[in-house]
Each structure stands twice: as structure tokens, then as C-alpha cells.
Specification:
Elements lengths: L31 H6 L2 H10 L18 H14 L5 E10 L8 E2 L7 E9 L5 E6 L3 H4 L7 H10 L8 E4 L6 H9 L3 E5 L13 H4 L7 E6 L4 E7 L3 E6 L8 E7 L2 E7 L1 H9 L2 H11 L11 H20 L2 H4 L8 H15 L1 H6 L1 H4 L7 H4 L2 H4 L7 E9 L6 E6 L4 E2 L2 H7 L3
Parallel strand pairs: 1-5, 5-6
Antiparallel strand pairs: 1-3, 2-3, 3-4, 6-9, 7-8, 8-9, 10-11, 12-13, 13-14
Helix pairs in contact: 3-10
Organism: Spodoptera frugiperda
Protein name: PiggyBac transposable element-derived protein 3-like
InterPro entries: PGBD (IPR029526), PiggyBac_TE-derived (IPR052638)
Amino acid sequence: FLYGVPPTHATPLNSVSRYRMYWEQKVDCSFPTVAGLMSRNRFEDLLRYFHVADNNNLAPDDKFAKVRPLWNMLNARWVKYYPGDKNLSIDESMIPYYGKHGTKQHIHGKPIRFGYKNWSICTRLGYLIYGELYQGASTGNTHPELGVGASVVLDLISKLPQGNYSFYFDNFFTSLPLLDELQKLGHDGTGTIRANRTEKAPLKDPKEMKKTSRGSHQQCTDVLSNITLVRYNDNNIVTVASTQSGSEPIGKVKRYCDKQKKDVDQPRCFINYNKFMGGVDRLDQNVGCYRIGIRLKRWYWQLLMFPINVAMNNAFQLYKISPAAKKSNGTSHDLLSFTRDVVSSYFLMKNSSASKTSSAATPRSSLAVIKRVPDAIRLDGTGHLIDKQNKQTRCGLCHKNTTMKCIKCNVALHSKCSIIFHTK
């Protein structure tokens, strides 16, 4: 259960119908690793009393005051360590919840239709830089003259470090006043725009545009505001407003036309939009793969688990661009193996439990001994004490018999071998 529950098309990993089954000693569900980490009663006590805010000092005007300290802390960490991308996407992310709450939303057509809405600003690969929970139209319209969508965008970008950025958003947010405001702040903006927000720009009517050949487009630019509108005939008639680029240079994209796959023209603003807009969807995909599967009836429980899942996703995105991943020679982690490695590291940090339940909690593995212990534990230089065991086992380094072992790594080692094992 520490790894969460994968989607239905994947093979479940450590997933059972009731969390109490993790501590059962039956043939069909035996999890000695989980049982060795903590007792069932202690786990239930943690579930019962787990809070992140003082109930006696909750802000009366904040509907999410019970989870606000955790979100504020993680938002600050995510902004501090984000990779520094300049092309960012802004969209809504849904946190599943099916109970009753005043802020619960329903969005038809989303993979998660019922739940809390979270305004997210992400990098192209799905690193969440900042998330703001939606409390309703009465609290989200900080710029009434621009509208709710523009207010969300301006509030999110105000959390970013100083610099010039290019933002991408869908037609819920895009408006010409918003793009003009972004230019004043030194940023570029690109987004699909609804036909009734083009302010009577001289573009072809969508019904007339539909009669043209696939790949045709029309562009008009306001010389005063430097905002470009491009209407494009693709699977449907789509209009994009941008201050970054127009239709040139024209690119190519493969489409099925007259039952044949052909290369059709695609304006540059659409190429950029398709490339950088999917960051929030990538975030939802990664979080949904291994979402924490513990379900409780408390309305705020999912709001506590979602940022923990996001923190794991963000750590994985940072790992992929780190020197450790580049030097892995083709053995770098994917999201699942990275999550397992992190969980294993925390498990091995629990010295007392790991040493007491070593025989039950550490199953046999075909991996080399040095690869079974994560480098974050093996090379941390803390608590690697050599103790005597009751029986002889093979040394994890030289493979000769020894009666000594490291109580933290739970690996049999000679005293001399221990120095090499924990430093190289």
C-alpha cells in the first residue's frame, strides 16, 4: 500500500481490498514487509490522529484550512527546486472525492469527474510548480475586470521566481485582455480562444472555414497590442491567440485525409501549443498510476494524499535530469522503480524494526547484494554498525563466510569489507 494503487490496466502492486489484510497471516495475503514496518494498531492510531493543522486556530475564511499548512510547505519546496523551464502550462487538475463538500466540482469528460479542483502550473513533463485549491467563484476572482480565468493565471504566475516566461492555457483562461496584461508583465502567452472572445477580429466564420481544405489557416495581428489570432482547420476549427508566435514558419503534421495519411500544414503557434500544453495532463497521468490507495470518509483525506503523490512525481522529474540518471548507463529508474527505491530507503532507515524482522522483511532476491541496498542508505555514512549474528552467512562483498553483519543494511560483512561496501 505504500506504493499506491495503479490504474485498472496495470498489474496491482501490494494492493488489497481492506488495509487490515496487510497484517493477516494467511496464505492469500501475507505482507511481512508491511507488518514488519509497524504494527496494525500503531498504523490505525496514525490514521485516526493524523492532522496538519490546529483545529482550534483555523482561518474562518479558508475552506481548506485543515490542509493549508501542508500545501503551503510543499508549494514553497516545489517552487524552490523546480527545474527552471520557461515554457509552462496552466490548467485544472482534479483530486478524486465522491462525498459531500461545498467545494466539490463536477467536470464532464475528465478522467476524474467528481472531486476537488486544483489550479496547477506545470512544466512540459509534469513537474507541478504551484497548486492552488479552488474554493469557488467568490474567492477566485481577484481581478474582476479580467474575469475568473485570467485571475487564476495571474495569481499562479505571481508565485514564480522573477524572469520571463511563456505560458500556455486552454480556452477557459484565454482572453485578449489577459494576453495584453501578460505582455505588460514581460511574459508571452498562447492559448486556444473561444469564438466569442476574439472581439470581432476579421477572421473567417467557422462555418466557412470548415469548407476549406484540411491544414488551411487564416491569421490576423493587432499592431497595437501585438496579439496574433490564427484560425486553423484541423479535426475541427480551432482558434489560437498568441503573443509569442504566429503561423510562420509553417510545420508539417500527419493526418488522415480521404482515408490516406498525408502531411498537412500546421501553423507554428499550434506546434508550440501542442508541445508545451500537456504538462498538467502528464502530472495527472503520473499521479494516477500509483495513487495512494488508502480510502477514508474524511473530506480532507484526499487533499492530504494528493500532495504526497505530487511530491513523489516531482522528485522523479528532478531525478530524470540529475547527473545520477545520466550516468546510469541505461539502468535509470522509471516512476515505479523510483517510488519503490524511495520506499525501500525509508524502510531501511528504521534500524530497530529492520534488524528485528530481518528474516521476515527481507525476502530472497536474485540481485547482487550491493544492488539490493539503495545507494541513499549504503553510502550515507550514518549508523552502519557491525554486529555479531548467531549463524554464519556469506559476506556481501567477498562472499566468504562470516558471523558479522551491518545492522542497518542487514547485509553480512567482514569488518574490512564493510568499509569498502559503505564507501564505493
